Every structure is written in structure tokens, then in C-alpha cells.
Amino acid sequence: MKKTIHEVTGEIQDRAVLVSLVTPQLKKQELYDPDHSLAELISLAETAQVEVLGTLTQNKEYTDSKWFIGKGKAEELKAMLEQTGGNTAIFDQELSGAQVRNLEQYLDVKIIDRTQLILDIFAQRAKTREGIIQVELAQLSYLLPRLYGQGKNLSRLGGGIGTRGPGETKLETDRRHIRERIAELKRQLQEVVRHRSLHRERRKKTGVFQVALVGYTNAGKSTLLRQLTHADVYVENQLFATLDLTSRSLELPGGMEIVVTDTVGFIQNLPHDLVAAFRATLEEACEADLILHVVDSSSEMMAAQMKVVDQVLEELGAHGKERVTVFNKIDLCSPEQKELLTTDGPFVRISAYREEDLSLLVELIESRFMGTSRTYRIPADKGDLISLVYRVGEVLENEVDGEDMRFKVRVNNKEYDKIGYLLAAYDEARPTQEEPKGETW
């Protein structure tokens, strides 16, 4: 009989009951749906390789300061854990340190809340030095104010906690070591941010057009990056399948090269500590010339997920950036559903696995990058101005007209912003915007 990975490594399999508390205050939140939130928690637990034994929902006017779900429901949860053989309880909402301690002592199982579950998943996914630093910083920032409530689970920090100091209690020593570690991680992260800023400045100087993929987790961003650029990135149908930032070059039909960057996926109630720790990574969206908002068209909660992404982008200061909405996974939608996929501003409906759809998307990207057609009449002896014409974009046509040269140019918007004013006197007519081909509005 084949052994499981937990039997081989000697690890204890997490077997959990998932708990959700629904209050009138939560119901008032625009983006909150109790059923969807609990379904998402199940997906998160499965992503973290937890065996889900069952779910428990409590409707209550307010949260219990001691037990979170109330003593009666805590007794029901204890009976359910004993009956199913569970060793973990995962809560859909964030718990205080006191609530964790009380529940842990009463239930005698590991207590995890939604934030900690997401942090654990990120810890599994982080591969690069930057990602590992960011995750550890977020975990320690989350843990510090809850340290007194962790009890037996404190051992999950591994070797991060130092020994007891003279004249200090163990708790004080732990807190001091965590603060010191947080300070060291912030210093390391600042160095990473400095290097990333240098790379950004280098790309800006070379005039490379930058595109950032953003969206709700499991919307298909990594799949899209792989299909567009043939990047060797991990793709799987699970939440937060990829975490580390990936940038790849993409050659447009006109011959220009751009950089496409895949960013970390968003999720409802994304932990604030995580947003803060990953700000350097998420700021790629702020620095991009164009944001592609990738949307899972097949999701029943599509509208709410789009609003979550809008909120995070606004928090990052990228809300006003030029954006194209990419309705992905249309192969999973009915014809009626596809007709409803519209939004303000430019958009495109695609399946990342269809070549014709990818071509449509690339054309749309190029139209934002080289979006304007202009015609210039320049004296043939003005070699410096003629060279500028070739720098501001793609020359579509050129002909000799007497002592002048006429050029029809599809303008590179970034280059034109820098040097186009030098050609303004030779522009034959007011430019007209070329509509991108395909289904975009």
C-alpha cells in the first residue's frame, strides 16, 4: 500500500472543522457573502493541504469576547471535533489572542483563523528570497500582538525565538526577539526594494513598456503569462498557486518588446500585514504603464471579486492607472453569460488557451502602447528630424513628395511624450485614435 507524504515525513495531518460566525454587521458589508466566504475558506484549507471534516455556522448578533462564537456553540464544536477526530478548528474571521487562548484550552486542538491560514499558504508558496522575507515579516507582525494567546502553537515559529534572558519572563523575551527579527527583516526588505527600484529606473530609461497582470487569486494570471510569453511558471487550479513576482518579455506584432509582470493574487479580506509586507511587490502595478485586470468570468462572485481588486489597487495608489479588463475563462461560460461580460473602459473576452484570443489581447495591448497614427511632412535635408520620426514609433509608410518626405507613423506613446513635441510643427493634421481590432467595448 502506498504511503502518504505525511506518513513518510512523520507529520501529523491537519484534520479540521471550519467555523463561520455571521453577524448583522458583517451582512451590511457590500462585498460580504457568508456562503461564498465559507466556500472560499474550504478552498483555502484544501490549498493548505488540510483535510476538511465539516463546517459549522453560527448566526449571532455580536461576537463573543471570550469564545467568539459563544459558549454553547463552542460546546457543539468540541463535540463535532471529538466525533470526527479533528485536531484543528479554522475560523473564517480574525480572532483575538484571548479568543485563541480560550478556545485552544477548551477544545484542546489547534486554532487557526482566516488570516493565519492565508499566511501559512503564502509560507508554502514563497520560493525567492524576497518572498520568504515578506512572508516571515507578515507572520511575525501578525503574531506579535497575539503572542500571549498562542500557547502550544508557539512552537510553529521554529527556531525564530531566542532563549530566556536574565531578569525577563519568557513572554517578554519572546516579544523582544520577535521585534528584533522584524527590524532585521525590514532592513533586508529595504535592500530588496532598493534593488527593485534600480531595475525599474533602468527599464524606464530604456523606454520599455511595462504591463502588470493583477486580479483575484485563481483568475488565470499565471496561465496567461505562460501562454503569452512561454514563461516557465507554475500553473495549477488552486488559490495562490504562484506567489513570487515573475517578469517576462513579449514581442508585439510591430516588433517592439514589452515586459509583462505577474503579481500576487488578491483575495477578500487580504491580511493587512500581508499587504504591507508585499507592498514592494504589489507596487509593480503602480509602476506599470498598463494594468491588465484578469477576471475569472466563470465565478459566481465575479462582480464582488472585481470590487476587491479595485479596493486593493486604490489602497496601493494604482487606481487611476490605465487599465484593460481581461475577462478570462470564457470557455467555461454560457453564451448568455458571455454577453453580460462588460465594464466601463476597454475590455476583452478571452480564454487563455485559445491562440486567436491571445492574438486579440496582444493587439489590444499594442493599441494602448502604439495607439495613435500621425502623418509628418519633413524636409529631406532634416536628417535629425527624420531620425526622430523613427524613434517615436513604427513607420507604416514613407514617400518622397517634392523636396519633402512624408511619413505615416504609428506612435509609441511613451517615446512621443518625451520627444514628440519636437515634431509638432511638421504634423500634417490632428491625429486620430485608431480603434483596436476585436471585441473590446
List keywords for this structure.
single chain, 441 residues, alpha/beta, Rossmann fold, 4 domains, six-stranded mixed β-sheet, four-stranded parallel β-sheet, 17 helices, elongated, disordered C terminus, ribosome binding, coiled coil, GTP-binding, GTPase_HflX
Task: Give the helix/strand layout.
Layout: H1 5-9, E1 15-22, H2 24-27, H3 34-47, E2 51-59, H4 71-84, E3 88-91, H5 97-107, E4 110-113, H6 114-125, H7 129-143, H8 170-206, E5 209-215, H9 221-229, E6 246-251, E7 257-262, H10 272-277, H11 279-282, H12 284-287, E8 290-296, H13 302-316, E9 323-328, H14 335-339, E10 347-349, H15 355-369, E11 372-379, H16 383-392, E12 393-401, E13 404-411, H17 413-419, E14 432-433
Parallel strand pairs: 1-2, 1-3, 3-4, 5-7, 5-8, 8-9, 9-10
Antiparallel strand pairs: 6-7, 11-13, 11-14, 12-13
Query: Judging from the principal axes of the Cα atoms, what is the shape?
Result: elongated
> Which blocks of ≥5 consecutive residues have pLDDT under 50?
1-10, 149-168, 431-441
State the name of the first-level CATH class of the largest domain.
Alpha Beta
Per DSSP E runs of 2 or more residues, the count of β-strands stands at 14
CATH topology of the largest domain: Rossmann fold
Pairing-aware structural class of the strands and helices?
Answer: alpha/beta
State which percent range the strand residues make up.
15-25%
Helicity range of the residues? 40-55%
Using only CA atoms, what is the Rg? 27 Å
State mean pLDDT (0 to 100 scale). 78
Counting copies of identical and different chains, the oligomeric state is: single chain
Strand arrangement within the widest β-sheet reads 6-7-5-8-9-10
Integer count of domains: 4
Q: What is the CATH architecture descriptor of the largest domain? A: 3-Layer(aba) Sandwich
Number of helical elements: 17
By CATH, the superfamily of the largest domain comes out as: P-loop containing nucleotide triphosphate hydrolases
> Major beta sheet, specifics?
6 strands, mixed
For the record, give the distance between the C-alpha atoms at the N and C termini, rounded to a whole number.
57 Å
